[in-house]
Amino acid sequence: VPGSADLRDRLSGPVLEVAPRLLGAVLRHGDVAVRLTEVEAYDGADDPGSHAYRGRTDRNAVMFGPAGHLYVYFTYGMHHCCNVVTGEQGRASAVLLRAGEVVEGHETARARRGGARERDLARGPARLCQALAITREDDGADLSGASPQLVLPAEEPGTGAVQTGPRVGLRGAPERPWRFWLAGDPTVSAYRPARVLEERRQI
DNA sequence: AAACAGATCTACT
DNA sequence: GTAGATCTGTTTT
């Protein structure tokens, strides 16, 4: 059984190395466990797309702490999204968990998700949090504990199994291809291309 | 006081 | 598969 130092060490490298390492990892919270199939890397203060870009605030404080903890934020007035803090302390890099496959606790997850189809239970960052019942109360949680718990795969996915592309929904730096997903996995979220910043015709 | 952020759902083609 | 409506905690002015 890996200790907290082991998990922290494996998450302490550059975020672009760590992010694909999370594909295939299992995140468990209570009765529900999800195998991660899609993630996005955010590189701290150097990254205009990161919540840490404009420095530390009450909301993002956890990002500036040690690797291996959960950073949970609230958005759209009703959704939560969760990230795994990576890199060295103070770096504020993190990996957003965008999608996964429920591998334990299907009944509980389906009830929380309003009876959604199997592949949609954790397909999308807010759906993943809803299936796992992760909220701001879990912000800062140590993932080496029993719950929430993150178990990294024994072997990293082969390079052929991982695809990359632009991150979703960013206004700042959409051209960094820092989204990683398992090729062909049905639980990977639908890609939404960036809206063309062209003036729309007035009615 | 006001602006911002952004994922999901529904309804429809 | 696509288009449009939706909301409140957080941050900035």
Helix and strand succession?
HHEEEEEHHEEE
Please give the alpha-carbon distance between the first and last residues.
62 Å
Largest sheet: 8 strands, antiparallel
Low-confidence stretches: 193-203
Q: What is the number of helices? A: 4
Rg value: 16 Å
Supply the helix-strand structural class.
alpha+beta
Q: Per the principal axes of the C-alpha atoms, what is the gross shape?
A: globular
Helix content: 10-25%
Residue-averaged pLDDT: 88
How much of the sequence lies in strands comes to 25-35%
What's the number of extended β-strand segments?
Answer: 8
What layout of secondary structure does this protein have?
Elements: H1 4-10, H2 15-21, E1 26-29, E2 32-43, E3 70-75, E4 79-86, E5 93-104, H3 106-112, H4 125-132, E6 149-151, E7 162-165, E8 179-182
Antiparallel strand pairs: 1-2, 1-6, 2-5, 2-8, 3-4, 4-5, 7-8
The chain binds a DNA duplex (13 and 13 nucleotides) through residues 54, 57-59, 73-79, 81, 124-127, 136, 168-169, 171, 189-190, 192.
Describe it.
The structure is a single chain. The protein is α+β, with helices and mostly antiparallel strands and 203 residues long. The protein has helices at residues 4-10, 15-21, 106-112, 125-132; strands spanning 26-29, 32-43, 70-75, 79-86, 93-104, 149-151, 162-165, 179-182. Strands 1, 2, 3, 4, 5, 6, 7 and 8 form an eight-stranded antiparallel β-sheet that branches. The longest helix is centred in the middle third of the chain and has 8 residues, at 125-132. The radius of gyration is 16 Å and the shape is globular. The protein starts with a helix and ends in a 21-residue tail after the last strand. It binds a DNA duplex (13 and 13 nucleotides) through β3 and α4.
